């Protein structure tokens, strides 16, 4: 497949590559181009903004959670019938898990045979930046750095010295120079942009990024680099799927409720698509807009920031009581991070307590510093409804919440953390009846048996079966005995 493609990378996080990627995608989309957006690494927030800029889903390409052949297959399948693919890197170009740079943006560039445009923060530097760019080009000759974008330029003289130095010493083009922007259209939360559904001026922000790209970048030259990359075709056979896809004329095997709104918004598109491919109907529900839950055979509650909506979640007694009732009835519920927090007893924010669903005996508080951040590797050491004992699962975690009170027992925690922080005491995966809640986020392409397990449990519940996939442990507290 001849796919025009470009990777927008940087020397470090916070250099401005996300806003530039959003701007480039939005500008091309406004010109009528069909852009396929991708995000390297585990990320929901940037991906949401990239998707909004392109007007279509953004897919994550991560070689830690997903095997390389599946990464290639995802890239190819989601680039079909698109004019150009734009992949935003993460962190610094060569930053990876080890000295070899595994899982880095550079390694993804080589896998996809994609050229790199390097976004560099030029604050308080001039000719030295040419040495930095030259070093990046020589560090791994197999990584094709095809141009640079100068960001946070102080003025014309600053730009002139940088442009002449880089083009003279590095032999590559400067594709644009963006000044220090006075207006902040993309406020930050924690370590990234505010989630797009929470930003009321999202479309205005996209428009501002598009205008910035159109005004300060040579979009024609960037597109030319992407088109030249199409000559380096990727030959890849579709990866074999472990899932059976349902035909369009089949009735839904089951209805899976997905709690999705500005409080719970962190879902990989592939996770929802995997459930649908197995014949499930996705039913989107929200405790922010409804006090009831429609008839469903399972629930999937993703991550997000329930703490920013704590008051609304607490006040919706009907929704909270319904979830607890359904959990007690054996409804299959799978929850990640923010979903885990919502299933607990309460959230404590600034000394005030906010009651949550009360399914799990946990009280959560919050810290100013991340309590879990990065890739995770977990082993399944106890029986549960979703994963076989002995399985190893790769995922990621990112949360500022912490466990203030855990009234359960280690026998209720089914995961052991080989890498990462987890829930408590290097454990994760709180299990109660058919509920499994965890801080670890998984990706369906890297953990294909997850979707099948959730759908099968939903079918069992729908059929009022007395058995499930495996034996479920019980929460070991006086309240739940």
At a glance:
By secondary structure, this protein is α/β, with parallel strands linked by helices. 30% of the residues lie in helices and 26% in strands.
Keywords, please?
Rossmann fold; 26% strand; nine-stranded mixed beta sheet; elongated; disordered C terminus; 481 residues; 13 helices; 2 domains; alpha/beta
Describe this structure in words.
There is one protein chain. The chain is an alpha/beta fold and 481 residues long. The protein folds into 2 domains: 5-229, Rossmann fold; 254-462, 3-Layer(aba) Sandwich (Rossmann fold), CATH 3.40.50. Helices cover 30% and strands 26% of the residues. The protein has helices at 17-30, 45-54, 68-79, 105-112, 128-139, 156-170, 202-216, 219-229, 269-277, 310-315, 317-328, 338-343, 448-462, and strands spanning 5-10, 35-40, 59-61, 84-88, 116-121, 145-153, 173-179, 188-189, 192-193, 254-259, 264-266, 280-285, 298-301, 303-304, 333-336, 346-349, 352-355, 362-366, 372-380, 392-399, 401-406, 413-419, 427-432, 435-438. A 9-stranded mixed β-sheet has the order 12-10-13-15-24-23-22-19-20. The protein has a 7-stranded parallel β-sheet with strand order 3-2-4-1-5-6-7, sandwiched between helices. Strands 17-16-18-21 form a 4-stranded mixed β-sheet. Helix 1 runs parallel beside helix 2 and helix 1 packs across helix 7. Residues 237-249 and 466-481 have low confidence and may be disordered.
């Amino acid at each position: 497949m001849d796919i025009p493609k470009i990777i927008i990378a940087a020397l470090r996080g916070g250099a401005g590559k996300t806003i530039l990627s959003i701007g480039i995608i939005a500008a091309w989309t406004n010109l009528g181009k069909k852009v396929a957006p991708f995000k390297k690494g585990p990320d929901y927030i940037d991906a949401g903004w990239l998707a909004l800029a392109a007007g279509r889903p953004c897919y994550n390409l991560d070689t830690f959670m997903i095997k390389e052949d599946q990464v290639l297959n995802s890239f190819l399948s989601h680039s079909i019938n698109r004019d150009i693919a734009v992949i935003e890197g993460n962190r610094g170009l060569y930053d990876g898990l080890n000295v070899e740079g595994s899982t880095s943006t550079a390694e993804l560039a080589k896998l996809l045979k994609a050229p790199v445009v390097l976004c560099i923060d030029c604050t308080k530097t001039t000719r030295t930046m040419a040495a930095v760019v030259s070093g990046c080009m020589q560090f791994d000759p197999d990584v094709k750095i095809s141009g640079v974008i100068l960001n946070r330029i102080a003025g014309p003289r600053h730009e002139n010295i940088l442009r002449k130095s880089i083009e003279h010493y590095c032999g590559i083009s400067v594709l644009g120079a963006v000044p220090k922007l006075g207006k902040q259209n993309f406020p930050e939360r924690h370590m990234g942009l505010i989630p797009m559904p929470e930003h009321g001026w999202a479309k205005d922000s996209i428009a501002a990024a598009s205008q910035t790209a159109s005004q300060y970048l040579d979009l024609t030259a960037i597109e030319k680099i992407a088109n030249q990359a199409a000559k380096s075709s990727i030959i890849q056979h579709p990866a074999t799927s472990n899932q059976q896809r349902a035909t369009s004329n089949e009735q839904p095997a089951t209805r899976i409720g997905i709690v999705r709104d500005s409080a719970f918004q962190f879902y990989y598109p592939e996770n929802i698509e995997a459930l649908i491919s197995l014949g499930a109907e996705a039913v989107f529900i929200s405790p922010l807009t409804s006090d009831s839950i429609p008839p469903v055979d399972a629930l999937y509650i993703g991550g997000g920031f329930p703490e920013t909506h704590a008051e609304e979640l607490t006040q919706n007694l009907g929704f909270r009581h319904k979830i607890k009732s359904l959990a007690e009835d054996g409804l299959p519920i799978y929850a990640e991070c923010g979903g885990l927090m919502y299933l607990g007893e309460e959230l404590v924010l600034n000394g005030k307590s906010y009651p949550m669903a009360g399914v799990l005996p946990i009280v959560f508080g919050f810290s100013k510093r991340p309590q879990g951040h990065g890739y995770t590797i977990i082993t399944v050491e106890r029986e549960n409804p979703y994963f076989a004992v002995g399985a190893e699962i790769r995922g990621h975690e990112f949360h500022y919440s912490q466990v203030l009170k855990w009234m359960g027992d280690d026998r209720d925690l089914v995961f052991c953390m080989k890498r990462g922080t987890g829930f408590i005491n290097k454990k994760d995966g709180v299990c109660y009846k058919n509920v499994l809640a965890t801080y670890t986020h998984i990706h369906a392409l890297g953990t294909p048996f997850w979707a099948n397990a959730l759908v099968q449990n939903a079918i069992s519940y729908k059929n009022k079966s007395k058995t499930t996939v495996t034996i479920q442990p019980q929460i070991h507290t006086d309240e739940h005995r």
